[in-house]
# Entry
Amino acid sequence: MKAILLAAGEGLRLRPLTENVPKPLLKILDKTILERSINNLSKCGVEGFVIITNYKEEKIKEHILDKFPSFNIVFVHQPEIKGTGNAFLLAKNHIQEEFFIGVNGDCVYSISLIKQTVEAAKNSTVSVGGKLVSDPENYGVILIDDNSSPHEIKEKPAKTEIKEGYANIGLYSISKDIFPILEKIEEKGEVSPRGEYELPDALNRILSEKKYPVDLVTLDENDYWFDIGRPWSLLEANKALLDIIVDERNGKIEDGVHIKGKVVIKKGAIIKSGTYIEGPVFIDEEAVVGPNCYIRGHTYLGKKSKAGNACEIKNSIIGDNTHVAHLSYVGDTIIGENCNFGAGTKTANLRLDKQSIPVNVKGKREDSGRRKLGVFIGDNVETGIGALIMPGIKIGGSSWIGSGTIVNEDVPSESTYFGTQSYTLKRKKTDAN
# Structure
């Protein structure tokens, strides 16, 4: 059995995190999104993979072939981003089986969802993955009949039309009958309102023909699905996967370290004396923590990262080879790779009015819905001593933030951002005598 994985998108809503890497190569803990899907598909019996690429596709090829050197993997270039339907059609010549699996390459799925989908394909059943949501107007929604079988996927219905429904999570078991339908859609130029050829439009025709049994694959209480569409989505996925880690302590833990809860401490990591860790926490290979650090729950420290003396880090993702110098605070924040925080750098994560924190997404102000949210920092960023970054701020890659600067606006890539102060210098008054 084969799977088609969609990995061509640029991930503009995730800037600055996708400036140097495509969205499917963003990491959740120690593995990329795409790597996780391939791992789980393989465990469920999928033996061939067709990956549709465009943005920074050489990085995808290099990473995936390095991680899966013996797998049957084909990469197909999508010249233009013309929609999911166009992407699937490009894979036509690589699918010989009657049924195959379709997967969004920028989503994180629990293995149970993938297993159910693979089983449907083995049984020649068309399946669509769905999650019950109370805001269906924000999703493609799967309409079901009286037997809970999907009969149509409707894109972003009005709130007055559907008050609750199953969001399409981009996980399918599909017959190769889809390919001639997609060809006809492109021949006729039947694009969606956003000007793309959409897979659900073709899938709706498969559903209406009722040639095959149809199944709705839904999430139970132990399942998860994350559509990594906004920067804070990574924090949500990071939290969910940390909640299910298995305790592992292979690094060096010095005397005087206190650990509460589950942790993963990988080989080569060093936890120095006086450090207090509240799990779940994941400390990757060769990371160095301490002395005297406070590492709070739902934190991931990347490979060769460093948290210096007396740092506090909470619910954050710290990229590989990034150094957070002593006396710094990082909360509800994502920091890219190869960054360096000057001593005493602080990321604010709470507004004084305690309201949810807005973030600029593709040039528009968007409510994150989160009361606590820090900052999003690209790769190769450096801050000076005592820098303070306000909630919801984005700092583009390769930028410098000056010492003592308060950052209260987004900083573009490859920029310098320095605050200025005025000073008064006076001679001290001396006694008249």
About this structure: The longest helix spans residues 111-122. The first strand starts at residue 2 and ends at 7.
